[in-house]
């Protein structure tokens, strides 16, 4: 079964996540990738050859869709580049998503260095 990874980034962090995906594209290409709507669109625009399943936008239920995948044991890792400097209208969804990752002990990365570590870990 392929490794399953979810990719999510807040607006201020989308460039960083797209850069990270571009740098790691050969390794990610072997995985099943899901993303929240806008993040998925940005990744697909940068790397059209990478297959990314885009869910709803985060504030419109995408974060909760990813949370449901975690609860159903459908993910091996979550890369979630959170913006720590801006108030977010859907803060409760952000908290719920990170909370579920912790509840289910899912490898969770919120920054470039931890994303590198998680990618190494799930490909071991
Ligand atoms: O808001 C998000 C995560 O909380 C991300 O959603 P988008 O990828 O749709 O911008």
Automatic annotation (TrEMBL):
| EC number, UniProt record | 4.2.3.3
Q: Where is the active site?
A: 63 (proton donor/acceptor)
| Record Gene3D superfamilies | Methylglyoxal synthase-like domain
Query: What are the residue boundaries of the MGS-like domain, all occurrences included?
Result: 1-124
Q: Which residues bind substrate?
A: 10, 14, 36-39, 57-58, 90
GO cellular component annotations, sorted alphabetically?
cytosol
What keywords appear on the UniProt entry? Lyase
- EC main class here is lyase
Keyword Lyase among UniProt keywords? yes
Domain of life, per lineage? Bacteria
Q: Which SMART domains match?
A: MGS
What are the recorded GO MF terms, alphabetically?
methylglyoxal synthase activity
Q: Which SUPFAM superfamilies does the entry link to?
A: Methylglyoxal synthase-like
Looking up InterPro entries in the UniProt record yields: Methylgl_synth, Methylglyoxal_synth_AS, MGS-like_dom, MGS-like_dom_sf
**Which Gene Ontology BP terms does the record give?**
methylglyoxal biosynthetic process
Which residue ranges traverse the bilayer?
none
**Catalytic activity annotated for this protein?**
dihydroxyacetone phosphate = methylglyoxal + phosphate
- What role does this protein play? Catalyzes the formation of methylglyoxal from dihydroxyacetone phosphate.
Q: Which family does it belong to?
A: Belongs to the methylglyoxal synthase family.
Q: What is this protein called?
A: Methylglyoxal synthase
Originating organism: Flavimaribacter sediminis
**UniProt lineage:** Bacteria, Pseudomonadati, Pseudomonadota, Alphaproteobacteria, Hyphomicrobiales
């Amino acid at each position: 079964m392929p490794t399953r990874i979810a990719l999510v980034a807040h607006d201020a962090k989308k460039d960083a996540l797209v850069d990270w995906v571009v740098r790691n594209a050969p390794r990610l290409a072997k995985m099943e990738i899901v993303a929240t709507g806008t993040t998925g669109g940005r990744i697909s625009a940068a790397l059209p050859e990478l297959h990314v399943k885009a869910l709803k936008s985060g504030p419109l239920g995408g974060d909760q869709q990813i949370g449901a995948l975690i609860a159903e044991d459908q993910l091996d890792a979550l890369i979630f580049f959170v913006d720590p400097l801006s108030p977010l209208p859907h803060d409760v969804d952000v908290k719920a998503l990170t909370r579920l990752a912790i509840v289910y002990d899912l490898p969770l990365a919120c920054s470039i260095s931890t994303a590198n570590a998680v990618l190494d870990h799930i490909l071991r």
